[in-house]
Amino acid sequence: MGSDxxxxxxxxxxxxxALGAYTPYIGRWVDSMGHxxxxxxxxxxxxxxxxILAPPLWxxxxxxxxxxxxxxxxxxxxxxxxxxxxxxxxxxxxxLAVMACFGLFYNAIMPQFEAxxxxxxxxxxxxxxxxxxxxxxxxxxxxxxxxWLMDRLGDxxxxxxxxxxxxxxVAAAWPHRNDRPPEHLETIDDAExxxxxxxxxxxxxxxxxxxxxxxxxxxxxxxxxxANGHDGATIGALWGTGVLIEIIMFWxxxxxxxxxxxxxxxxxxxxxxxxxxxxxxxFARDLxxxxxxxxxxxxxxxxxxxxxxRMMSEFFPGKRAAAGQSLLxxxxxxxxxxxxxxxxxxxxxxxxxxxxFLAGAGAAAMAWLVYSLxxxxxxxx
Length: 381
What we know:
381 residues; Growth Hormone, Chain: A; globular; 80% helix
């Protein structure tokens, strides 16, 4: 990898290192202040909701700028500034207000950076995986250690020990201030005409339901494990196990897809995900089973995602790829994330982690049903 490309790896590392602190532990921090599951769910709902709005709004702004690299650095700086607002936010209203601003900037900058990375790679797009993998490494290191750190320093330390990661992200963004993305950044508006293509709506519904199923994992997994007697170091090790296996399986995905086919593997991944959430719901006190359930992240996330990307290349070939990705991002991570956060918050308040993860299993089961109907009628939308 050339020295010019190392700066891209460094930014991926810093961006996802910050995400490795935020995703697993912000729910634990909010819960420690005495807020109920609805506030935790609303926080993550705003996070996913901003994924629907932020990329197209940011893209529209960039299209009017002659120096998009400067806007990228500014977006990173505003992300760090907004996150710093958590240091003096304690009421539910203040937390939600800060989250809304933070999510808009944090979720806007990565689509721009992906475009900048692909523009820099040019004909060397095959090297993308070697650059992007450093983001997973950053997430792994932080997610697996911050539970132990918060056990030692206390839950109230969360915003203070996370701010340095966002400052590092701003520093990593600075060398990219003169970078330029492709001439045209497609937004979700460009994908509207693709909505009625055969199979697209059913595929997007499957992706949405799978993301809903992950709602309990992203919002309440740490709290569920803590409520079942596991300490921060153990919880961090469980998060790290999932990410480590994710990294390994991303490298193996092309070989598995070539052997078994994306459509067959996708059905298997959905079935494995149902099993994963049921085991997590019912056997949370059994540590070996929790590690076994986390190992299923290899299929419920890594291989599932790789299969989705292969199928997306068939649905949206060539110049339609960027528009298709916008559509998938908005539906799965955006709408699916909001619905998953709301569903898991409601289930958590009714019956704790067991109810939340069983609800996630139910959403995955619906995805399997929808997908199985699709495989029987491949021409249907």
